[in-house]
Amino acid sequence: MPRLLVVEAGAQPPISNDPVEDWVRPPVSRDDLEARVAVLQNRFDSNRVPAIDSSGTLSFGRHSLTVSATQAELMRLLIDRFGDVVHRSEFAQCAALRTLTLNRNSLDLHIMRLRRRLLPVELSIRTVWGRGYMLENAVSAGVVPMTNAI
């Protein structure tokens, strides 16, 4: 949890190596306070990693949702390499996904459906052209979640 400590004048500031902790001395301007809070929140958000349990419940920060068995297997691969590219061939080589016929079109269809499911969780799957897919934090990637999907 990000923390912004207010240190009394004359008091020794805390020594911390925690990247989501900062301190200020009063009086502090509102602009400075908001800037420090924003930086702490960005650091906190960038360190979060999604998780998926054996029942297919995906958790990321305060959000969670349940996905299908196929989507859970796709997510396991993407979570293991969170922030890195998962090549298309790796999906086909996954033992848990071998029961499916994962050609290019079917993989694209599964990813499209999974993208829609991930909107409320603030995760996005980015296509890395000619290589594969990358799971990332939608907020830090600049993806704005749709509120009313058509």
Task: Walk me through the structure.
This protein has 150 residues and is α+β, with helices and mostly antiparallel strands. The protein has 2 domains: 3-47, no CATH class; 51-141, Arc Repressor Mutant, subunit A (Orthogonal Bundle). The protein is built from 5 helices and 8 strands, in the order E-E-H-E-E-E-H-E-H-H-E-E-H. A 3-stranded antiparallel β-sheet has the order 3-4-5, with helices on one face. A hairpin with a 3-residue loop joins strand 7 (123-128) and strand 8 (132-137). It is elongated. The relative contact order is 0.13.
Class based on secondary structure composition and strand pairing? alpha+beta
| Mean pLDDT figure | 83
Would you count the extended β strands for me? 8
**Gyration radius, rounded:** 20 Å
Net shape: elongated
Sheet having the most strands: 3 strands, antiparallel
Distance between the termini: 35 Å
Total discrete domains: 2
The helix count comes to 5
List unreliable stretches of 5+ residues: 146-150
Q: What strand line-up does the widest sheet have?
A: 3-4-5
Under CATH, the homologous superfamily of the largest domain reads: Winged helix-like DNA-binding domain superfamily/Winged helix DNA-binding domain
CATH class of the largest domain: Mainly Alpha
